[in-house]
Design goal:
about 20% strand; six-stranded mixed beta sheet; about 500 residues; alpha/beta; binds nicotinamide-adenine-dinucleotide; Aldehyde Dehydrogenase, Chain A, domain 2; about 40% helix; 2 domains; single chain
């Protein structure tokens, strides 16, 4: 199969007809050659989306019932091909099969959720007695226009769907650019978009990295850009977007605290802490990468965490181990560098701390789950996002110290509290400056609940009703009920 981009309703190899290689991270073998978009391809996609939204208008003007039905068809087709999509995601990204299956289920439900939401009446009606007389005022929600959607590689299909479903539901014309590290499932999704008959130009797929991204964020023809990725690139997107003050949505990095009090259920806290940092090989923006544990509970907790971590299975993700490989060699080396930094900084590596090269895993990009104990707030491994299966442990003595340590980060994406004291759980969670928080669990995520960060973890929200509204403009329409003169000017 030829892995191509999709511009203005056509599959194309692009202006240059140049490919790059993607590899299976489990064994480094060749997976696919993918055609890469050029600057001209990017401009063509923007033109197509602009024409679709402002001239053709067929997607934008389609009634919301019919548009919603098309999204439902996408969900059905994706569900029918769940196995194929999940396996492709495993090959391309390295996540264990059962995690990939959950991602496809979530993607299916996301399309269904926004298909239903777009059919629900929205907007408000107000009767006002303003200084000039009696008026009716109402609001309508309109699509924002040409939206560029940029996503990372950690949830290749799902991160795209979190943007595509609400953006398309709202009637926008979109240009989608997934991470070039993992594009295959996105290309397959666009096959479905074509089958269900989304009008040409309303959805475009580009394949590339910074070059394409810079054209999208710097274009005055793009009305909105929504970006999921690192904080550093997010800042560049925001700067470029100033050119036409385009609407910006940012879902960025994190260094999230997982606060564990001595009265927590030991087994529950340990298992959730592992889900918090080892799921998806720790390549999760909301990962609980900083464990803060009450001093009196430290020894018991860490001993049990190491025992449980030692049973984690690592292997070919298609065989459904607990952990697969890191997405690629570059990212694996980045994680391994951080592990060395941690050792040099004086943190005590009490588990893992190296590449995993047992048997066939030697050919792939596997990293042993890694636990650093006796960490301090000044260490880089405590401050910087590693985006791998590496967790740091620090201790606290009091509730206020725990809160202070939890918030001692420029990020504010997520956080959790483990305790059997209900009042304390609510008190502490309220003090954590983060957009996504959990009590006595870590990482569950729902289509219905808005997702996003405080501080340098982002702007705006995805998912939920808010996730749809991000792709809409709200227009106020005011109607004067007495069309005669109001007598404001005396002469
Ligand atoms: P990244 O910032 O390197 O890349 C993200 C996307 O931006 C990719 O598609 C990339 O090609 C593109 N890009 C690169 N340079 C660009 C530029 N100059 N202009 C526009 N786009 C450009 O991030 P990554 O390594 O792909 O993903 C990991 C990061 O994503 C982590 O920091 C993680 O926390 C974050 N993330 C956040 C969320 C969230 O919901 N907050 C979810 C998943 C991942």
């Amino acid at each position: 199969m030829e892995w191509m981009m999709y511009i203005d309703g056509k599959w194309t190899k692009g202006e240059r007809s140049v490919t790059f290689e993607t590899k299976n991270p489990a064994d480094g073998s060749h997976l696919a050659d993918v055609y890469e978009s050029s600057v001209k391809d990017t401009i063509d996609a923007i033109k197509a989306a602009k024409y679709s939204f402002y001239k053709d208008r067929s997607w934008r003007d389609m009634d919301s019932q019919t548009r919603g039905d098309i999204l439902l068809k996408i969900a059905d087709k994706l569900e029918e091909r769940k196995d194929e999509f999940a396996r492709l995601e495993v090959l391309d990204n390295g996540k264990p099969l059962r995690e990939a299956q959950c991602d496809i289920d979530d993607a299916v439900h996301n399309f269904r959720y926004y298909a239903s939401l777009i059919k629900v009446p929205h907007g408000g009606v107000y009767e006002v007695n303003e200084g000039f007389g009696k008026m009716h005022s109402y609001t309508i929600h309109e699509p924002t226009g040409v939206c560029a959607l940029i996503t990372p590689w950690n949830y290749p299909l799902l991160m795209g769907v979190w943007k595509l479903a609400p953006a398309l539901a709202a009637g926008n014309s979109v240009i989608y650019k997934p991470s070039p590290y993992c594009v295959l499932s996105s290309i397959k999704l666009f096959e479905i978009f074509e089958e269900v008959g989304i009008p040409k130009g309303a959805c475009n797929l580009l394949i590339g990295g910074a070059e394409v991204g810079n054209v999208l964020s710097g274009s005055t023809d793009v009305d909105m850009i929504t970006f999921t990725g690192s904080t550093k690139v997010g800042q560049a997107v925001m700067r470029n977007s100033a050119v036409n003050v385009k609407k910006v949505g940012l879902e960025l990095g994190g260094k999230s605290p997982n606060v564990i009090f001595a009265d927590a259920d030991l087994e529950g806290a340990v298992e959730w802490a592992m889900i918090g940092i080892f799921l998806n090989q720790g390549q999760i923006c909301s990962a609980g990468s900083r464990i803060l544990v009450e001093e009196s509970f430290h020894d018991k907790f860490v001993k049990r965490l190491i025992e449980r971590a030692s049973h984690i299975t690592i292997g070919n993700p298609m065989d459904n181990p607990d952990m697969g490989p890191i997405v690629n060699e570059i990212q694996m080396n980045r994680v391994l560098d951080y592990i060395e930094i941690g050792k040099d900084e004086g943190a005590k590596c009490v588990f893992g701390g190296h590449r995993y090269i047992v048997g066939d895993c030697a050919k792939g990009y596997f990293v042993k789950p890694t636990i650093f104990d006796y960490c301090t707030s000044d260490m880089r491994i405590v401050k910087e996002e590693i985006f791998g299966p590496v967790v740091t442990i620090q201790t606290f003595k009091t509730e206020s110290e725990a809160i202070e340590m939890a918030n001692d980060t420029p990020y504010g994406l997520a956080g959790a509290v483990f305790t059997s004291d209900g009042s304390r759980a609510l008190r502490v969670i309220k003090e954590i400056r983060a957009g996504i928080t959990w009590i006595n669990c870590y990482n569950p995520c729902f289509n219905e609940a808005p997702w996003g960060g405080y501080k340098m973890s982002g702007i705006g929200r995805e998912l939920g009703v808010k996730g749809l509204e991000e792709y809409q403009e709200i227009k106020q329409i005011n109607i004067n009920l007495n069309p005669g003169p109001v007598g404001w000017y005396q002469n």
